[in-house]
Amino acid sequence: MPKPIYVLNGPNLNLLGTREPHIYGSETLGEVETRVRGRAGALGHEVVFRQTNHEGELIDWVQQARVSAAALIINPAGYGHTSVALHDALKAVEVPIVEVHLSNPARREDFRRRSFVSNVAQGVIAGLGAQGYELAVEAAARLAAEGEA
Ligand code: CA2
Whose CA is nearest to atom 8 of ligand 1? Predict the structure, then answer.
């Protein structure tokens, strides 16, 4: 049985579709999950899709992905700008990591320019809204397949 692609979402992303649609789009996280499952299914991958508002829980799931995932897609949300602990957990992951952001942090406030995730990810997709998650699935599936070769 092939391992699933893990898609982990950080704090406040459960609020997607309820506020700030001009920044994050109008789709809910449930709708993003449907997109992800559709794209991954077409590529022959199962998906584990989760969201948490708790740093420790996010780190537990990253550690789980280390052993159980074919690849890891993560939108760390605010923790991407603050968490050394998340950086350390991701550094221990040997499967491909793709960081995704709905908005483009580089175009926003200065405090969003620092990332503790980008330098431990294979690639970063930002500013393309919910479509970015589908592009991340495509990239993760390719990187996972290359790793198996
Ligand atoms: O653009 C992204 O995906 C972010 O990761 C979203 C984070 C933000 O801190 C990052 O800089 C960029 C914020 C997630 C909060 O999402 C909300 C969505 C709707 C309403 C309120 C918050």
Answer: 77
Catalytic residues: 24, 101
101 vs 80: CA distance, rounded Å = 10
Atom of ligand 1 nearest to the CA of 100: 3
Length of the chain: 149
Tokens of 17: 């579709």
Domains of the chain, start order: 5-148 (3.40.50.9100)
pLDDT tens digits along 35-94: 999 999 999 999 999 999 999 999 999 999 999 999 999 999 999 999 999 999 999 999
Cα–Cα distance for residue pair 87/109, rounded to 1 Å:
21
Dihedral sign from CA coordinates of 104, 106, 111, 112: positive
Band of residue 148 on the pLDDT scale cut at 50, 70, 90: confident
Strands 47-51 and 71-75, sheet pairing: unpaired
